[in-house]
Design goal:
The complex is a heterodimer of chains A (about 325) and B (about 350). Chain A is mostly helical and about 325 residues long. Chain A has a two-stranded antiparallel sheet with strand order 1-2. Chain A is extended, with a radius of gyration of 27 Å. Helices cover about 75% and strands about 0% of the residues of chain A. Chain B is an alpha+beta fold and about 350 residues long. In chain B, about 25% of the residues lie in helices and about 35% in strands. Chain B has helices at about 45-50, 95-100, 110-120, 135-150, 165-185, 195-200, 220-225, 230-235; strands spanning about 5-15, 15-30, 30-35, 60-65, 65, 80, 155-160, 185-190, 205-210, 210-215, 240-245, 250-255, 260-265, 270-280, 285-295, 295-305, 315-320, 325. In chain B, helix 2 (about 95-100) packs across helix 3, helix 2 runs parallel beside helix 4 (about 135-150) and helix 3 packs across helix 4 (about 135-150). Chain B is elongated, with a radius of gyration of 24 Å. Classes of the chains: A mainly alpha (about 325), B alpha+beta (about 350). The interface of A and B includes residues 214, 223, 233 and 237 of A.
Chain lengths: ~325, ~350
């Protein structure tokens, strides 16, 4: 004998909303994703495409007004005008040098943190790596200039160590040098490297932390000497982190417009050019064309890295 | 028989923990030797000392007559199957297996040929191009085995290699491992916390507790003649009774549950206890009875039959005097703080 089921108790609207979310998970997902999608889609990507669109316009040299006619002349000027190509080459070379230096400095630190520190010590190391990011970027840049100045700490220290000749050699080098470290490209390179270093260490650490220690032991167990273990096991597994970190340091350097103003020689960098062209000069098409350069360079870099098989281990 | 491994008063201290505390043993070539114990008993550390992944704080390790305590892992003629398999995730199965040959500079065609042979040996032919992530647990286990065996080491260390597999697969692999060990004639040192695994595969077993060896014996010796309460309880299960035996004196005795007979009612016999039946667990081929005797619990394990004893009834437990095993009075105490 079966009894008819007892009717479920009536439920309040709050309960019913919970039921709705539970039974229709996609609806909840839509509700959760809508605000960020609107933000990313309209405000961010929309503005970006609008900006890129401007790089196909040009400015009337006579009136200083933007002419809304489709043209490649602005983009072309990036490659034809020697002043513009100078800016692009200078910025890309600096970004490459800074990325390489950050990688070289960050690898031992991340390696040590991932494999040789215990939980507590690693927390301290995380703090030390992140500590610079707690203070203002501007403060750090100006501090860098003071440290590298003619009467700054670095030149004083080198003098105490009787190494002033080394500083003189660097400053006398044609492109790198200048009247003092703080007004040379080498000094700018040092400040860039210092400022972006945490952005290289953290992704590198994240990828190395995911490498189980047992892989290193297994490699040694199978007869690989430490150098072979590094080349065959650790390095391939670290490449995704190196790629991620280098994208940070590379693109941050490409886009920065403060450091080249505060430290180094007067030559313009891409970021400064964008800043000046869209501001005082009012040449938004040229600014847009310049801001296209980092996007293209980074895309090419990513394709290259993928081609080399860097993401196979992901 | 030549000695493959000789440990002499070996110790390994981590901070205040004596992980391995004065272990001495000898393992012959071609032997299947197991180290059995609960987690934290020092068995894995002992294996890692033999493999060279830990440095001993005292004592000697002699491998095939050579002092090995200071040799790095890559300089030992020993290979290891790791608990988590430690397969290289960025290499396919073939490259994983061929790794040991690659680092020795063996030509590509030669090392792939030999890796292919190894894969055939562990029945994985056809999966050469897969990545470890694309394999099942059992397949990964076989890759790890093939990778460790490709150099034909004289000694293979296995650190709970079957721990992550389900029961059915584990039993299959036990049989295969044993057959492989016999056909290759390699010395196996096998770490496990699973007593049935250790008993079924090994020539000899060392039972570890608190960094020390409690008993080193053949599987049969361990089960039939446990020397301490710990061994009696850890290897199989045991009732530990206290009392006086005319032939063996006063002390603790181990009594295997399957050596206990259970009958309804209380009929006095020699070697018996009367108690109240607390619980009955029907296990299929066997039935386990939990009986309360004067506040203590005694377990009996019998072959199942159709009769059912009612819970709460009075029962008599009896056994042959020859089934009792006198235990030594001392069991290893918890590890002491290392004196500095």
């Amino acid at each position: 004998m079966t009894q008819p089921p007892i009717a479920a108790e009536p439920r309040g609207w709050w309960r019913r909303l919970s039921d709705l979310f539970y039974l229709r998970p996609r609806f909840l997902l839509l509700l959760l994703l809508l605000p960020p999608l609107l933000w990313m889609g309209i405000i961010y990507l929309g503005s970006l495409f609008n900006l890129l669109l401007y790089s196909f316009y040009s400015i009337n040299d006579f009136t200083g007004q933007v002419e809304y006619n489709f043209t490649l002349s602005t983009l072309k000027s990036l490659f034809t005008s020697p002043a513009n190509t100078d800016i692009v080459t200078r910025t890309v070379l600096m970004a490459l040098a800074v990325t390489a230096a950050c990688g070289l400095l960050a690898f031992p630190i991340a390696f040590y943190m991932a494999f040789y520190t215990r939980a507590n010590a690693r927390t301290v190391w995380y703090m030390l790596v992140l500590l610079p990011l707690w203070s203002s970027y501007l403060v750090r840049v100006y501090a860098g200039r003071l440290i590298l100045a003619q009467e700054g700490v670095v030149s004083w220290l080198l003098a105490q160590l009787h190494l002033s000749w080394l500083l003189d050699v660097i400053l006398a080098t044609p492109v790198l040098g200048g009247p003092s470290l703080s007004s040379s490209y080498f000094g700018m390179f040092l400040v860039f490297t210092y400022i972006w270093l945490p952005y290289m260490i953290l992704p590198l650490l994240a990828s190395l932390e995911r490498v189980p220690k047992s892989l290193i032991q297994a490699s040694a167990d199978l007869g690989a000497k430490p150098g072979q273990t590094f080349r065959k096991i650790i390095w391939p597994l670290a490449i995704p982190g190196v790629a991620a970190g280098s994208i940070f340091t590379f693109s941050l350097t490409l886009g920065d417009y403060i450091i080249p103003q505060v430290v180094g020689q007067p030559g313009f960098f891409i970021g400064q050019m964008v800043y000046v062209q869209q501001g005082t000069a009012g040449n938004i098409p040229l600014a847009a064309a310049f801001s296209l350069v980092p996007i293209v360079v980074i895309t090419l870099y990513l394709l290259l890295v993928r081609r080399l098989g860097a993401f196979n281990a992901l | 028989m030549q000695t493959a491994v000789q440990l002499n008063n070996l110790s390994c201290v981590f901070g205040s923990v004596r992980a391995v505390d004065g272990v001495s043993l000898e393992i012959g070539t071609g032997e299947f030797f197991s180290m059995l114990g609960p987690s934290g008993s020092g068995k894995t550390t002992c294996l890692r000392l033999i493999g060279g992944f830990e440095v001993p704080t005292g004592g000697y390790i002699v491998l095939f007559g050579q002092d090995a305590a200071k040799l790095p892992p890559y300089a030992r003629d020993v290979n290891t199957v790791f608990q988590d398999y430690a397969l290289f995730p960025h290499m396919n199965v073939l490259d994983n297996v061929a790794y040991a040959l690659m680092v020795r500079g063996v030509a590509r065609s030669e090392r792939y040929r030999r890796a292919g042979e190894m894969l055939e040996l562990v029945k994985l032919a056809g999966l050469e191009k897969r990545r470890p992530a694309q394999l099942s647990g059992g397949q990964r286990q076989r890759v790890a085995l093939a990778r460790a065996l490709i150099n034909r080491p004289k000694l293979l260390l296995l650190d709970e290699p079957l721990g992550a597999l389900d029961l059915k697969l584990r039993e299959e692999m036990q049989i295969e491992l044993k057959a492989l060990q016999r056909s290759l004639g390699i010395t196996f040192v096998y770490v496990t916390h699973d007593q049935s695994e250790a008993l079924s595969m090994s020539d000899r077993v060392a039972v570890f507790n608190y960094g020390k060896i409690e008993q080193l014996d053949t599987p049969k010796g361990l089960y039939e003649y446990p020397r301490t309460e710990f061994v009696a309880r850890f290897v199989g299960s045991a009732n530990v009774l206290e009392g006086r035996l005319i032939s063996q004196g006063v002390g603790q005795f181990a009594l295997r549950p399957e050596r206990v007979r259970i009958t309804v009612g209380s009929e006095p016999k020699a070697n018996h206890l009367v108690g109240r039946l607390l619980d009955v667990h029907y296990l299929g081929s066997q039935t386990r009875y939990e009986v309360e005797v004067e506040g203590a619990r005694v377990t009996a394990l019998t072959t199942s039959d159709a009769t059912a004893l009612p819970i709460g009834s009075t029962v008599t437990l009896s056994w042959d005097a020859a089934s009792l095993r006198r235990l030594e009075d001392t069991t290893n105490s918890p590890r002491q703080k290392a004196s500095v």
